[in-house]
Design brief:
By secondary structure, the protein is of the alpha+beta class. The chain is 36% helix and 17% strand. It folds into 2 domains: 4-74, no CATH class; 79-144, Proto-chlorophyllide reductase 57 kD subunit B (Helicase, Ruva Protein, domain 3), CATH 1.10.8.550. The two termini are 23 Å apart. It binds zinc ion.
């Protein structure tokens, strides 16, 4: 499994992998050209799927098509995601993060934080939850099978 940095058309290099022991898997890749980083995050079911496909994260397998997850994490992968966007508060789908929830998000490893934030934000938006609190995060986590995030 390989990821391509789309702007550079450069194969991203495997940097590190974490197996927290709860069945989830997190792997970070970086572009050698622009230094942009992205992370792959799987829940336990997906980790099994990836294993059963014989895909080695960071291994030398044949490149696959760039996955949607690549684009997702590229969009939300930096701390800039925490700054309110110009439309925050005015757009109907805007989700606000409570100070408690932001604090909790800061404890997530930085290389997956953008992606985790996006997962929770999408979850809240789909359910028309306006303020994301730690309680919402708990519910989302068990509903989405993201234990450990
Ligand atoms: Zn790049």
């Amino acid at each position: 499994m390989k990821f391509l940095c789309i702007p550079c058309d450069h194969v991203m290099e495997f940097v590190e992998r974490q197996l927290p022991g709860d069945g989830t898997l997190a792997a970070v890749f970086a572009c050698g050209k622009c230094q942009r980083e992205m992370a792959l995050l799987t829940n336990p079911m997906e980790t099994q799927f990836v294993s059963s496909m014989g895909i080695k994260i960071g291994g030398r397998e044949v490149p696959t098509q760039p996955m949607e997850v690549t684009r997702t994490s590229l969009e939300g992968g930096s701390d800039a995601a925490f700054r309110p966007s110009p439309s925050a508060g005015s757009s109907p789908g805007a989700v606000e993060w409570s100070p408690d929830a932001v604090e909790r998000l800061q404890r997530v490893p930085s290389f997956v934080r953008g992606m985790v934030k996006r997962i929770y934000t999408d979850y809240a938006r789909e359910r028309e939850i306006r303020v994301l609190t730690p309680e919402v995060m708990d519910t989302a986590r068990s509903e989405l099978g993201l234990e450990g995030m």
